[in-house]
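lol ok so funny story. i was supposed to be doing the assay writeup but got distracted and ended up predicting the structure for this chain instead. priorities right. anyway since i did it might as well share w the group, maybe its usefull for someone
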Amino acid sequence: MKPYEINETAMGYLKANWSATQIRDILKKNKPEPPFIEPHFLPGGVTALEVDGAAERNGVLKINIFTKLGAGTKEGEVYGGMLEDLFHHYSIGHLLFENGDIMPWTEWVGVDKSLQAGHHQTTIPFSVIWEN
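and the output, tada:
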């Protein structure tokens, strides 16, 4: 699956489930729009997730999520948590994803500090496993 296909599928899933999550209920005042999703596949990543006791580990798919909510704010952190819940145990095509913790965008190399101040930017690491 190509990166743009992963992006389109993930965004389609997010938009389809947008109203079904607690995101809008918790952040009615903010009214955030669906975030921009930027996928990065990192071959050879290690994961502890196994399917039926055995799995071929291929790498890690990291999805960077950019939103307009302030980094470190209560609203931004709750929003990030809701996104994490939304993508938990999610599969796209022949790939199965298991999300880890949402991490601050500051871990990303070359972060723009001025952008960091006005945006809640998170990275969700996914363990990628081919279905047998």
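Residues 3-130 form a domain with the STM4215-like fold (CATH 3.30.2000). Confidence is low (pLDDT under 50) at residues 45-55, 100-122, 125-132.
back to the writeup now i swear
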